[in-house]
């Protein structure tokens, strides 16, 4: 798709890491940056509150939430730190996660736990998985009477696994356990309705599958849970001399982080509009089919295996090259330097994966190029692990 600014000489199969911003969305982003620099005081001190309110309203509608339940954040790592640092967790409490969680967010909870005294418990979910029910049952084995918070991904980063979030959230609510969902890879790749999902807290990246500019994310806190969350950064929105006067204390406390460029946030509505116009269900299905093709055909190559049943992944899939005993870092370099393929190689629980992402710009030729490169892998002795 010509809307994207990606280098045409690179086979870009890594939308999952940082996304890719379409040209019309990027031009809107630059428009907001120029507007900011034209009159910074007017823009930041007088115009920004209403601009953010309008953008927040559109994002909330896209995600099935209320505008008063969402604030913009730079990324999900920021939101995870907010929960880990500010939620009332202490000695004897446990935060339950899976062994598939994104490193930066896992570190946020481990760091806060080392200061506040709570434990981060990792529940293993072995691969391959069989069914949503089996995943939920396996995860629930980690719950104890000390579990105060569940923090899990909607779609995992390392293993591209879609977890049964509604089932887990329902069980948690019945048990009186709070839930925080890392939705970095979900909105834009699958439909998300926060009102129906049942999570207490949810964070999402807008600059991945929603194709907004880098540094745009959202943090959802259900209205009846907002009193539990303090601001990670205390600024003008907190004190009695508030910079902006609004009726909603949650937004006042969390939205104003000091001087920063809000252009990425203000561009998210344009990204949503672009998505709704161009990323139809048929386009999503085509992207999913391309990933399924890559995973299935790669598994026919000697030494390469597949990981998930088709029902567990969408526009990201895993190719398991563990038995080839290749070095993950050397493999990533070889894919790029030799074949101009941009795809992440992942080490997880002693296994080595190539994660393949497909979006509207991905072609059948891109997938065939990857498969051709993978066909050379069994003979690449220089990539063997030490």
From TrEMBL:
<keyword id="KW-0663">Pyridoxal phosphate</keyword>
<dbReference type="InterPro" id="IPR000192">
    <property type="entry name" value="Aminotrans_V_dom"/>
</dbReference>
<dbReference type="Pfam" id="PF00266">
    <property type="entry name" value="Aminotran_5"/>
</dbReference>
<dbReference type="InterPro" id="IPR015421">
    <property type="entry name" value="PyrdxlP-dep_Trfase_major"/>
</dbReference>
<keyword id="KW-0413">Isomerase</keyword>
<protein>
    <submittedName>
        <fullName>Isopenicillin N epimerase</fullName>
        <ecNumber>5.1.1.17</ecNumber>
    </submittedName>
</protein>
<dbReference type="InterPro" id="IPR015424">
    <property type="entry name" value="PyrdxlP-dep_Trfase"/>
</dbReference>
<dbReference type="InterPro" id="IPR015422">
    <property type="entry name" value="PyrdxlP-dep_Trfase_small"/>
</dbReference>
<dbReference type="GO" id="GO:0045439">
    <property type="term" value="F:isopenicillin-N epimerase activity"/>
</dbReference>
<feature type="domain" description="Aminotransferase class V">
    <location>
        <begin position="22"/>
        <end position="370"/>
    </location>
</feature>
